[in-house]
Amino acid sequence: MEGKNNESFWPSYVDIMTTLFAITLVLFAVSFSRFKIKEKQLESLVDEYENIITVYSTVGDIDSTKYFGYNEQYLKHLFTVDVEYQQKEYRIDKLKLDIENKALAERKRDSILQAGQIVKNTIMRLESSDSSKGNIKFLVVIEGQASKVRYDNDDYHNNYTLSYLRAQFLNKFWKENGIDLASIPKCELIISGSGEEGVPRIIPAIVKPSTPEEEKVWIDEESKNQRFLIHIVPVIGNIDVTKEKIEKYKRTSKR
C-alpha cells in the first residue's frame, strides 16, 4: 500500500508543478508585454513633455537679456525698460525724456526696438524648432498702463483709453521699424490697456498726499506707471499630453 501511494503521489506532484510553471510563464509573458506597451506610452509622454519644457525654457531665455526679467510674484516675463510718458501722452515720441534730454530719449526708443526684436527672434526661433512641430503658438500681449494722476474728461479721454493707445502706438512703432509680430504665423498679438489697474504696478510711498510738496512726490512716483508691459505666453495646441490620452493609456494597460 505504501508503494502504491508513492507511485500515485509523484506523477500528481509533477503535473501540479508543470501546470504552475506553465501558468507562471504565461503570466510573465503577459506582464512583460504590458510593461513594454506601458514603456512606449511613457516614452511618448516624456517626449511631449520635454518639447513643452524646451518651449518654455526658450521663452525664459529672454530673461538673460537686459530688456526682460521674470517676476516670480506675478509669474510673468516683463519688459524691464522704464518708459515714462509725458502727462496724457501715448506716442513713443512723447516720452518724458523728450522734454528733459532728447539724446537719452532716443536711446530709450532704441532699447524699445531692441526688446521688440528679441521678442520677434524668440518666437521665430521656436517656430522653426522641432519642439513646436506645428503644435504651438504664442500669445504676445502688449499691455499699456496709466498712472492714477487724475485724467477723466469723458468716455474717450481718460486713463483707460490712454493706456490702450500706449500699447497700440508701441505696436505701430515696432511695425514701422520692421517688427511686425502679427505677421508671424504662430503669433497671436493682443493690444490691451489696463488703465489704472493691472499688475505689477509701482506703489508710491505716500498714499494720500496732504501738502503741495507731498503731491509733487506722489505724482513723480505714480507717473512711473505711465508705461507698458510685454507678456509672452506659449499656447499649447495639439501636443497631446491630455487627460483623455492618459485615460486611454490606462484603459489599454488594463486589457
Q: What is the fourth-level CATH superfamily?
A: OmpA-like domain
What is CATH's topology name?
A: 60s Ribosomal Protein L30, Chain: A
Q: Helix proportion of residues, in percent? A: 40-55%
Strand content: 5-15%
- The CATH architecture classification is 2-Layer Sandwich
The helix/strand class is alpha+beta
Number of helices: 6
Termini, distance in Å? 50 Å
Mean pLDDT: 79
For the CA atoms, what is the radius of gyration? Answer: 32 Å
The total of beta strands comes to: 5
Number of domains: 1
Major sheet, described briefly?
Answer: 3 strands, mixed
Uncertain runs: none
CATH first level: Alpha Beta
List the secondary-structure elements in sequence, H or E.
HEEHHEHEHEH
| Global shape | elongated
In spatial order, strands of the major sheet run 4-3-5
Summarize the structure.
The chain is an alpha+beta fold and 255 residues long.
Description:
This protein is of the alpha+beta class. The protein has one domain: 60s Ribosomal Protein L30, Chain: A (2-Layer Sandwich), CATH 3.30.1330. Helices cover 51% and strands 13% of the residues. It contains six helices and five strands; from the N terminus they run H-E-E-H-H-E-H-E-H-E-H. The strands form two sheets. The chain has a three-stranded mixed β-sheet. A two-stranded antiparallel ribbon has the order 1-2. It is elongated and about 110 Å long. The mean pLDDT is 79.
